[in-house]
Amino acid sequence: MKKENGNRSKNSKKKCGLRSEGRLLGIGTSVVFVASVLCLKWLTFAGKRYTLPLFLKAVYASGGLPEYFSRVTVTAREAVTKDSAYAQFLPSYFLLYVAAAAAALSILRIVLLLFGKNPRFLRYIIYGMTLTVFLVLVTFGGYLPDDGLIVSVIAVGIDSLGHVYLEQRKQIRDEAEALKREEQEKKEEKKRRKHFPGRYDRGFYHVVWRNFVHNRKSYFLFILGAGGVVTILHTLLGVQYGLKAGGAGIGTGYGNGMQRILGEILPVAACISVLILALIITHYLRTRMHNYSIFYSLGIRKNTLRLIIALEYTVCLLFAYFAGLFLAASVLFLAGKTLLADITGSRPWSAGGWKTAAATAGIYGAAVLVSSLINYHLFGHESLFKLSTRRQEAEKMPHRFLVPGIAAGTAVTVSAAVRYWLPPEAEKFSANIWMLIGSFVLFYFLHARTAAYSSRRSETQGERLLSILPWRYRFKTNYRFWYLLFALHLLSGMIYIPEYAAVEAAGSAAGLYPYDFVCMSYEEDEDYFSDLSATCDVEIHTWPMLRCTTPLGAPYTWKQAAANQYMGVLWPQGQHIAVPETCYRELKRAVGEPVGKSLELEENEVHVVFQQDTSVKSHPLEWYIGDREPRFRIGQPVRSYDFMERETLFPQYVMKSSERSILTGMFQQGQQENIVVLSDHVFDGFFRGGGGKEGPTRLKLIKCGGDDYEIIEQKLQTYAKRHKNDASWDDRIQPYYAKQTAAAETKAEHHFKKAACLAVLAGLLTGSFFIFFIKYGLEQEELAKKFSQLKSIGMPEKERRRLLVREMAKIVWGSYVPAVLLSISFICAVAAKRMYTAWELAVYVKYLCILFLCYTLLYAVVTAILGTCYIRAVLGGRRRQRR
Fold first, then answer.
1. What is the pLDDT of residue 677?
2. How far apart are CA 748 and CA 735, in angstroms?
3. Is the peptide bond before 572 cis (omega within 30 degrees of 0)?
4. Which of 171, 612, 620, 734 has the fewest CB atoms within 10 Å, counting from its CB?
5. Does 150 map to a domain?
């Protein structure tokens, strides 16, 4: 009895403590809520901050909400009820009375709590009223929330969560204590069960070492693949570093060509690395599971087995990293000594030292981490025996929605190919992604449809039954490997082989700069250039120009979208050169190009000359969202404007025609400093009217003779300092451009792009080899059993070999041929959209043929060698076992 009374007194004390804590919490949060409603600034409207009572008082003193809104926003009284801002403000305003009522109920709650009452229904009513006010404000807006509203919502949230915690605290503590006791008992039982007082003898370590030596092929494959990944990554980063360190004159401005190329290539290389590593780790673990399961069955401790796996895994990764660094350093040394000597000088340049190695290690580590997470289910598999035999389970072949799936995949594939041709999104990488998605859906259902049809036909007519069985019972596995091969070939054919051929078609970088210096000057600079002409051996041509500014000079990125920069001033704004048609015709004569007939431009029409070479993707003049025709203003970029007036500030023009040509030089890789041709009378209207004379008005094209180049460049550097404000909007836009610097940058970009394309192509081709090797490596044991059974029923070895070769050919060439066929549309789009000349097209086709031939030969030779090895292992495996 005494014990029961004691327990009751303890429980009563706990309840009293709980109630007192709840009272204190409720009083505190209610006081904060009431104070925030009555005393703190609750809202901001029309630039003025109000407490809730003062705002309601101001509305009442004005004679009502419409009158107050009309007075504060300077809106006519009769137009208030039709105003959209007033319509948004109305729901939030009426909910202010709900907030005031919640404050009154909070005062009532404080009084009840002081007298020992804690009405739960009253608390929930306050919660609901505050939540309603907040949700209506978020939905409709109308005014900006201030400190009081935020503090009140926080106070209600703390009150709600605090009461929930106080009510459930005892139950949480009891459950935590029970769980802790249970875990402690399990640990003690496990410790007793796994107690091992001795040590492993020498025989154990001998078995582990023999197992390690016996499976050297798995380690070699692991190190070879991971080392190839490191080689590709370090080569890309090392070439970029070497070009910069070798004095190639790489610019450091926003979006310079080198960084742009690296930004396009590196994510793809990282994805390829993840794919290759994931496949290699899958193959490594699955082939090693049989040995691990034997160890486990013989009684090895789990911790010891995990230590063995971790050591093997870590050593392979580290060995692959250092081997890849060594191979990449050798390649970079030879490249710096031979291929790039005309850029960086005769001395070989370094591969970047520890900085590049550290960057490579970071990307490699991230790829290993992602690949390991993909294979996490293999690391943590409970039954090693079950995992080692898992690949022998049959797979279901899809049989529903085949025709709709084929139709949907065809639609996405065709739309992606068409989108790659259409402006303003021509040659966008997103079209390549949609092609991969569409082709995956298309061929998935197409293979399922074909396999189902062939299966029914073989059952009725008995034809090709053995060739259908692998797809019938291993459809998902076979399609997975088939599509991986297809995707790698498709990426090679539609992106990187055409890109390399396009760089080769660009020719010499020096031909892209017909003048030694190109300057944008002002009227007051005429005396400066007269003195320059008098003191140096130069030939200066002067043409009228105006700065042409577009609202957006680069693609709108997801980072800008996340920051909602579209609602503000867009950066960078595009800057180009506007000239009259007469000047345009003279510029073409000066570089030796045929002038042709008159452009016959109307008032609102322009002709655009994209100053870029064949290696640069086609793009619009500007990237303003939703426009197919360019918008621009005559004048310098605008530092501030109301985004609602953007389309008025940058009027839209009609691009009647366009061409790709070099009239002054390729600056900013054709992204900016292009030539916008206006009709003579439209240009004169801007030029003489004064409205467009913001910025430079004279285009100076300078050719120097003799050895005066360096002297002229030094003088122009002084000139650039006088006009440094012209580069304040965008540091890529300079008052003058020098031929030697720009040509060195372009040459370096060409070499880097070719090296990057070759590195990615090597990665894609290597990935295809690994996919083929891993597929048949995982299936070797099963194939050996299958073909031994065929031998047992009397099938000749020649027929068995032919059957296996036919199965391999479906994977090897059945993935390659469709990929090449789908690439043709993208290859043609590159030549058409970049407006290749006949000579450029001939060079482009030449290098396309060379690259496709080399790619195909390497693919055929290596897969043939690997296939021969597997055919020998499969067909001769049982014979060797019997011997």
1. 92
2. 23
3. yes
4. 171
5. yes
Domain that holds residue 151: 2-174
**Residue keyed to tokens 């058409």:** 832
Please give the backbone phi and psi of residue 621, each rounded to the nearest 5 degrees, phi first.
Answer: -65, -35
pLDDT at 118 over 50: yes
306-344: pLDDT as tens digits: 777 778 778 888 888 888 888 877 766 665 554 444 444
Residue 618: alpha-carbon gap to chain centroid: 20
Contact yes or no for 445/406 (Cβ under 8 A): yes
The CA-based diameter of the chain, rounded to the nearest angstrom, is 118
Q: Which amino acid is at 560?
A: Q
Question: What integer pLDDT is reported at residue 408 of this predicted model?
Answer: 92
SS (H, E, C) 163-178: HHHHHHHHHHHHHHHH
Ramachandran category for residue 550: left, alpha or beta (phi over 0 → left; psi -120 to 50 → alpha):
beta
Is the pTM higher than 0.85? The answer reads no
Rounded CA separation 256/20 (Å)? 66
Share of the chain above pLDDT 90, in %: 10
Q: Give the DSSP letter of residue 134.
A: H
Number of domains in the chain: 1
CB 95 within 8 A of CB 89: no
Q: Which residue has the higher pLDDT, 558 or 858?
A: 858
Q: Following DSSP, what letter does each residue of 615-664 receive, concatenated?
A: TSPP--S---TT-SS-B-EESSPPS---GGGHHHHS-B-EEEEEEE--SS
> If we measure between CA atoms, which residue out of 873, 810, 781 comes closest to residue 466?
810
Instruction: Give dist(CA 594, CA 192) in Å, integer.
Output: 93
Distance CA 458, CA 470 (A): 13
Asked whether residue 203 is assigned to any structural domain, the reply reads: no
Round to whole Å and give the CA distance between 859 and 761: 12
Q: Kindly report, residue by residue over 674-691, the tens digit of the pLDDT.
A: 999 998 888 888 887 655
Sign of torsion over alpha carbons 259, 260, 265, 270: positive
In 10 A of CB 439, how many CB atoms?
Answer: 23
Which band of pLDDT confidence, cut at 50, 70 and 90, is reported for residue 80? confident
Cα distance between residue 835 and residue 748, in whole Å: 23
- Per the model's pLDDT, the better-predicted residue between 867 and 337 turns out to be 867
Does some domain include residue 64?
yes
13 lies in some domain: yes
Residue with tokens 């009442």: 60
Provide the mean pLDDT of the chain.
78
Beta-bridged to residue 701, according to DSSP, are 518, 541
Contact 52, 96 (CB under 8 A): yes
Task: Tell me what the mean pLDDT of segment 488-511 comes to.
Answer: 89
| Angular region, 578: left φ>0, alpha ψ -120 to 50, beta rest | beta
The pLDDT assigned to 486 comes to 93
Nearest-angstrom CA–CA distance, 142 and 86 = 7
Please tell me the distance from the alpha carbon of residue 94 to that of residue 136, in angstroms, as a whole number. Answer: 10
- At 115, give phi and psi (nearest 5°): -95, 15
- What tens digit of pLDDT does each residue of 198-238 get? 566 666 667 667 766 666 777 777 788 788 788 877 777 77
Rg from Cα positions in the chain: 37
Q: Kindly tell me if the per-residue pLDDT of 435 is higher than 60.
A: yes
Gap between the Cα atoms of 27 and 40, Å rounded: 18
Residue 224: C-alpha distances to residues 211, 745, 760 (Å): 20, 35, 17
